[in-house]
Write the C-alpha cells for this entry.
Amino acid sequence: MEQSKKSHLSRRSFIANAGLAAAGLAMMPSAVFAKRRKLSPNDQLNIAGVGVGGRGFGVLKAMESENIVALCDVDWKYAKGCFEHFPKAKRYWDWRVMFDEMADEIDAVVVATADHAHAIIAAHAITMGKHVYVEKPLTHTVYESRLLTKLAAKYQVATQMGNQGASGEGVALTTEWIHNGEIGEVTKVEAFTDRPIWPQGLNRPEEVMPIPDTFNWDLFIGPAKMRPYNNIYTPWNFRGWWDFGTGALGDMACHILHPVFKGLNLGYPTKAQGSSTLLLTDAAPTAQRVRLTFPERKSLAKVKMPEVEVHWYDGGLQPLKPEGWPEGRDMNDAGGGVLFHGTKDTLICGCYGKDPWLLSGRKPDVPKTQPRITSSHEMDWVRACKESPKKRVETLSPFSEAGPFNEMVVMGVLAVRLQSLNKELHWDGENMRFTNIGDDETIRTVIRDGFKIHDGHPTFNKDWTDPVNANEFAQELIKHTYRDGWSLPEMP
C-alpha cells in the first residue's frame, strides 16, 4: 500500500515526535542485528532506497537483479520514474517510517539524498544491522565521517561509498605505479575539477514559494536549520548550498582525489588553507583553491612516503601545465585531473583515476598488486552484503577507507569556510579540532553581496553577519548541531 503524504505526518507518536523516532531506532539495533538474514550468493538481497529521484535511481537500476522492496523520497514528482520502474516496492516519504515498518524485510539500504542527510540515515541503518551504500560525498562533516567509519566496524556490515572510480582500472594502476617507485617520491599533488555545473555563489533567495503537493519540505530539511521553501534549492541544486551540500569540492573530490588518497597512503592532514571567490554564508563560492598538507607516512618497499602537499582547484581553475606538457593536450579528462609530481617523473590521470600516463612518455609494466573486480561498483557491494563478516572480501570503497578519505575532502570545505582567519590552519585529526584558533578570535561571513549597477558603475553593499567566536563557528562545521528532533547514534 502506498503511504499518503497526509498519513505519514499523523500516524503514531513515533512520527509526530522525530526525537522519539530517533530514540526508538537507537534502541532497536541489538535485536535487529541478531536477526540479520543469512544469505547465500544466489539469494536476492532485499534493498531499500532513500533518495531515489536522481542518482539514487541510477544506483538502484544497477542493482535491479536484486529485490528492490522499498523506496523513499521527499519529492514524489522527482521520484516518479523510479517509483514506476519498481512498481512492487513500497513507497515512503519518511525513511524513519520505512525503517520502523520494514525492519525485518530490509537487508540493505542505498542512500542518495542531499549530502546533509547522508549520515543520519546511514548511521541508523547500520545500527539496525543493515548494509549500506552511500552516494558521495559520504557525509557533510568530519564528525559524521568518523561516526560512519566506527559504526561500520562495530556492526560488521558491508559498506560502499558511491565513488565508482574506486572500482575502475585507473585507481588500481595509478596506485601500483606509485607503490612500485615509478615516479619516485611524491611531495606535491595538484588536482582540479571543471565543476560546478550547478548554481553557486548565489545570494539566499528572499522569495518564499508555495510548497508543491508532491514535496515534503520539512523532511527535506531534516537535521538542518529550517528555512522557507524555494525551488532554487532542490532537486540537484542542493550541492551549491552549504546547509545541504558541499560545493564542487565535496562533490567531485570524492572521484578525483581517490587515487591520491589511496596511492599515497594518506591519513589525516596536519595543515589546511583555502581561498575562493566571494564567500557567502549560504552558498558555496564559484571557484575555490585549497592546500592540504599530510605528514610523512611509513615507507613502502620501493618508495618513501614523505610529507606531501595536495592542491585543489575548481570553478574553472586548473594547475599550470608543467614543463614538457604536450602542446594542445587538454588537462581536463572526463571532468578533472590529477598531477602527481614525483622526483623521477610526473604521473597524470583524469577524473576517477582515468587513463593514467607519465609525462616522460614511459609506459610502466608493474606487478598487479591491487584488487580488481569483474562486476560493477554497485554489484560488488551486493556481493559483499551476502558474505559473512569473517569471510567477506571488502568492496573497493568501504567505510574503513571512504570514511577517512571523506574527512580529507570535507577538510577542504572547512579550509575555504574559515579562510577569513587569514592563516594556515593546524589540524589535530585524532581529536577532530583545530589547534591554532585563538579563544578570542572571531569570524564574519557575507550574507548577501548587495551588488547593483548605479549610474553605470558596479557597486557592492555587502551585508555581513555579526562577529562570532571562531572556535565555536569551526566546531559547528566539524560537528553540526542538528535541528530539534533529529539525532545521530552515539560514537562507538
Summary: The domain at 5-166+376-398 is CATH 3.40.50.720 (Rossmann fold). The longest strand covers residues 186-193. The CA atoms of residues 331 and 337 lie 7 Å apart. The chain has a mean pLDDT of 93.
